[in-house]
Write a structure and sequence with these properties.
This protein is of the alpha/beta class. It folds into two domains: 358 residues, Isopropylmalate Dehydrogenase; 105 residues, Alpha-Beta Plaits (2-Layer Sandwich), CATH 3.30.70. The chain contains 13 helices and 20 strands. A ten-stranded mixed beta sheet has the order 2-1-3-12-11-4-5-10-8-9, sandwiched between helices. Strands 17-16-18-15-19-20 form a six-stranded antiparallel beta sheet. The longest helix is centred in the first third of the chain and has 17 residues. Bound molecules: nicotinamide-adenine-dinucleotide (NAD). The site of nicotinamide-adenine-dinucleotide has 20 residues, from loops.
C-alpha cells in the first residue's frame, strides 16, 4: 500500500462540519494518500472551558503531523477568545498565506477574467492583535512590521512567481501615509525585487490597487501585501471571481503548513446543507500538492472543473435561467457529483496538471543582516488630559524641559495642536508630547535616565502619562515621523 501522510483535520464551526464532510468524502474516493487525525478546536472547546479554544492534544497532533486541513472557525467579535486562525498561523510560524483566484467563466458567472495569486503576510501588521485602551475615549492597535517579516514574505512571493512561471509581482501598500511601516514593506520589495530581474514588478497604493483588482484584474499576476490588506483583497478577488465559497488557501511555514477555505464559518447558512465546499476542496488540493501527491490533486481538480462545467452548482453560484447552471445542488450532492467525475477531465476549460511540490526548496531562506547604529534623540510621552486648551498645556509642559530634552510639539490623534495649532482641530483626551534632544554633535547623547527623570517631572506636575515611545535615529536616519502639520 502507498505511503500515507498523517494530517490533522478540524471540522470547525458553522458550515465547517458540512463542507469538511463533503471534502473528506471526495479525498477518500480519490484515494488521497492521507491518514487523518481529527482534533476539536473553536467554539465548543472554548465553551467547555479552554479559554484559547485549542487544547494541548490538538497542539500535539499539529506538531506531530505538521500538516493541517482546517474548516472555518467562528471568532467572536469584540470580546471572547482571540482568533484561532490567527493564533494557529502565528504559533506554527505559517508566514505566507497563498490565495490563488481564478475565474471559471462562463460556467461561473463573473464580469472579469482573473488568474492571480495573492501572497499575504500572515504573522504581523495589525493582526499582531496588540491592543490597549489608553483613555476613556481612546483605544489603540499596534501595527508591527518587521524587516525579517517583510523579507520572508517578499522573497516567498518572488520565488513562488519563479517556480510557477508567473511573470509579474505587484506590491500593495499604503506607504504614502504610513511611511515607516508600509514604507519598510515597499522598500524591502524594491531591494529583493532587484534579485529577480526576469520578473516584472510594480507597486500600487492599496486603495487604487484594490479598485483595479476588482475592475481590471488582468493587470495582476502575483500580488504581495501585508496581512490586513491581503485579507481584504482576497475576499474582494474571490467574490468578483464568482463567490467567496470558491477559493482555498495555503498557510506555509518553514516546518508546518495549514490548508483552508478563504471564507469564514458562514453562520447565516450553517446547518442548511447548501454551502459550497469548493473553497475547502481547493485548500485540500493545495495540501495534496504540498504532501507530494500531485496526481491525486490533479484528478480532484479536473473532476471539480468538470462538475462546474456540467452546470452542477451550489446556491452561491447557481444562476436561475442561465444555460451554464443546470442543477442547483446541496453541499453533499455537489460532493457526489465531483466523486462521480473523478478520472474525467473538463471538456471546455483547461485541464490542470500539478507537478510535485515546488515550494519546498525555498521556504527557508537566509535573511539579510542589518545592524545600524541606534541613537536616542528624544521621547514622545502620551498623556490622558481632559482639558482642551493646547496653548495652556504647551506653556505648562515647556516648564518641564530639562537634561537637554525640550518640548517641541504637542499633537492630538497625530495632528499638531501646539505650537500654532488651529482652533478648528478636534481634540480627544489623548495627547502626545514630543520632547526632543537639544544636545549637539560631540556632546554626550541623551540617556534613558533623562527620560525617566522627565516622566517623574510630568507626574509630579499632576499629569497622567499613559505611555512613551522613544525617538531614535538609525544610521543617522530618523526612526519616527513628523506630526501632521508639524
Ligand atoms: P463568511 O466568509 O463566513 O461569510 C460571508 C458571506 O459569504 C456569508 O453571506 C456567507 O453565507 C457566504 N459564504 C461564505 N462561505 C460560503 C460557502 N462556502 N458557500 C456559500 N456561501 C458562503 O464571513 P463572516 O460572516 O464575516 O464571518 C463568519 C465567521 O467566520 C466569523 O466568526 C469570522 O470571524 C469567521 N471567519 C473565519 C475564518 C477562518 O476560519 N479562516 C475566515 C474568515 C472569517
Amino acid at each position: 500500500m502507498a505511503h500515507k501522510t498523517p494530517i490533522t483535520v478540524a471540522y470547525g464551526d458553522g458550515i465547517g462540519p458540512e463542507i469538511m464532510e463533503a471534502v473528506l468524502r471526495i479525498l477518500d474516493a480519490a484515494e488521497a494518500p492521507i491518514e487523518k487525525e481529527i482534533i476539536e478546536i473553536g467554539e465548543k472547546v472554548y465553551l467547555s472551558g479552554t479559554s484559547s479554544g485549542i487544547g494541548p492534544e490538538a497542539w500535539d497532533s499539529l506538531r506531530r503531523t505538521r500538516v493541517f486541513l482546517k474548516a472555518p472557525i467562528t471568532t467572536p467579535q469584540g470580546g471572547g477568545y482571540k482568533s484561532l486562525n490567527v493564533t494557529t498561523r502565528k504559533a506554527l510560524g505559517l508566514y505566507a498565506n497563498v490565495r490563488p483566484v481564478r475565474t471559471l467563466e462562463p460556467y461561473v458567472a463573473t464580469k472579469v477574467h482573473m488568474d492571480l495569486v495573492i501572497v499575504r503576510e500572515n504573522e504581523e501588521d495589525l493582526y499582531a492583535g496588540i491592543e490597549h485602551q489608553q483613555t476613556a475615549d481612546v483605544v489603540q492597535c499596534l501595527k508591527l512590521i518587521s524587516r525579517p517579516g517583510c523579507e520572508k514574505i517578499v522573497r516567498y512571493a518572488f520565488e513562488y512567481a519563479k517556480a510557477y512561471g508567473r511573470k509579474k509581482v505587484s506590491c500593495f501598500s499604503k506607504d504614502n501615509i504610513m511611511k515607516l511601516t508600509d514604507g519598510l514593506f515597499h522598500k524591502v520589495f524594491n531591494e529583493i525585487g532587484e534579485e529577480y530581474p526576469e520578473i516584472e514588478k510594480d507597486h500600487r497604493i492599496i486603495d487604487i490597487g484594490s479598485a483595479l483588482l476588482a475592475e481590471q484584474p488582468e493587470k495582476f499576476d502575483v500580488i504581495v501585501t501585508e496581512n490586513l490588506y491581503g485579507d481584504i483583497i482576497s475576499d474582494i478577488a474571490a467574490q468578483v471571481a464568482g463567490s467567496v465559497g470558491l477559493c482555498g488557501s495555503a498557510n506555509i511555514g518553514e516546518q508546518c503548513a495549514m490548508f483552508e477555505a478563504i471564507h469564514g464559518s458562514a453562520p447565516d447558512i450553517a446547518g442548511k446543507g447548501i454551502a459550497n465546499p469548493s473553497g475547502l476542496l481547493n485548500g485540500a488540493i493545495m495540501m495534496l500538492v504540498h504532501i507530494n501527491a500531485p496526481e491525486v490533486a490533479s484528478k480532484i481538480h479536473n473532476a471539480w472543473l468538470r462538475t462546474l462545467e456540467d452546470g452542477i452548482h451550489t446556491a452561491d453560484i447557481y444562476k436561475e435561467g442561465s444555460e451554464h447552471s443546470v442543477r442547483k445542488v446541496s453541499t453533499q450532492a455537489f460532493a457526489d457529483a465531483v466523486i462521480e467525475r473523478l478520472g474525467q477531465l473538463p471538456e471546455k476549460m483547461a485541464t490542470v496538471t500539478y507537478n510535485s511540490n515546488r515550494e519546498a526548496t525555498f521556504r527557508s531562506v537566509p535573511l539579510s543582516t542589518y545592524n545600524p547604529v541606534k541613537t536616542l534623540m528624544g521621547v514622545d510621552v502620551f498623556i490622558d488630559y481632559k482639558g482642551r486648551d493646547a496653548n495652556k498645556l504647551g506653556a505648562e509642559l515647556s516648564k518641564l524641559n530639562g537634561d537637554g530634552l525640550v518640548l517641541t510639539m504637542i499633537s492630538n490623534r497625530g495632528v499638531k495642536v501646539w505650537p500654532e495649532g488651529l482652533p478648528e482641530t478636534f481634540m480627544t483626551n489623548h495627547f502626545r508630547l514630543r520632547y526632543k534632544s537639544e544636545i549637539h554633535p560631540g556632546e554626550d547623547p541623551i540617556r534613558p535616565e533623562y527620560i525617566i527623570r522627565l516622566l517623574q517631572r510630568i507626574m509630579d506636575a499632576g499629569f497622567d502619562f499613559i505611555k512613551i515611545e522613544n525617538l531614535y535615529m538609525f544610521d543617522g536616519v530618523k526612526g519616527y515621523t513628523a506630526g501632521q502639520g508639524e
